[in-house]
Amino acid sequence: MFGVDHGRRLSQPPSSGGRPVTVPTSQLRAAFAAALSRMYGAEVPAYTTLVDVTSEVNRDTAHSDRLGSLQRVTAERHGAIRVGSVTELADVADLFAAFGMFGVGFYDLRDAASPVPVVSTAFRPIDADELEANPFRVFTSMLATDDARFFHPDLAARVRSFVGQRNLFDPALIAQARRIATDGCPPDQADDFVRSATAAFALSREPIDKAWYDELAAVSAVAADIAGVRSTHINHLTPRVLDIDALYARMTARGVTMIDAIQGPPRTPCPAVLLRQTSFRALAEPRRFRGPDGSGFDGTLRVRFGEVEARGVALTRAGRARYDAAMADRGNWHRYFPGTDAEMAAQGLAYYRAGDPTRPVVYEDFLPASAAGIFRSNLDGDTTVTETADRATHYDLDWMAGAIGHHIHDPYDLYEKAAS
Question: Which ranges does the record mark as transmembrane (predicted)?
Answer without folding.
Answer: none
